[in-house]
Model the fold of this input.
Amino acid sequence: MRVLWLHISGLLIAVLLVASIAGSSAQEATPVGAAASATPTERSFVWDRIDVTVELREDNSLHVTERGRVDFHGGPFRSGYREIPWSTIEQMRNISVGEVIASNVQPYQYVSPHDFSNKEPKTYTHQIIGPMMRIDWSFSPATNQARTFELAFDAYGALQSYPDAAHPYYQQIRWIAVGSELTESAPVKEASMTIVLPQPVDPDKTFVQGPGGDLPEDHTKDGKTWTWRDSTLGKGDALEVRLQFEPLVKANEPS
Done:
């Protein structure tokens, strides 16, 4: 498992999400009332809510949306970055970053890595650095307030199939919505993880793992949308889920 990191205005913290699919990794970002006042040197923040959605598409890609609401204490905070490992993701496309204002996502503008500056708010960039895809973004200064950011991308080559397993042929999505490194760095009040399949599967032929119960019916009403929630995350805890189901799309076997 690999760790993604989010750097906000001089503070280095574990990124709010570490995604792991069948042994591979991918990864995340936060409005509520104004935070208590603090001096500029007392900067901190609380993840008020983290919601992650992974949608499996017919072409076997995963469309990932990571939305996080953060309560900033002190400031100013101006920028963030994410690093997503390439280890078992063959390609990453359609990367976008935006801010959620009045329930609407206001997209940030892409600029080249050479032109990116945290002094230019509402911009983002991305580039491959070694084994990582690094995504940087800049926002208008935030001091003693709450903000919500959304990051999205399409991941290819991440879904795993197991045709030679001891049990019947199956596919699996395994995802860490909130990593332990994040909760070590800042509190997380509420978190959710949703997996959306391209078509319903028989709950009686699935295997689920994660908070909220071990029965399929604890997480789905229609066999297509599966949701896990956790409001008990303590320091060092993680929100990890696994969904194993009958094959739905063509996918690569795990290496």
User: Anything to note?
Assistant: Residues 1-40 have pLDDT under 50 and may be disordered. Residues 209 and 242 are 5 Å apart (CA to CA). The first strand starts at residue 5 and ends at 8. The helical segments are 180-185.
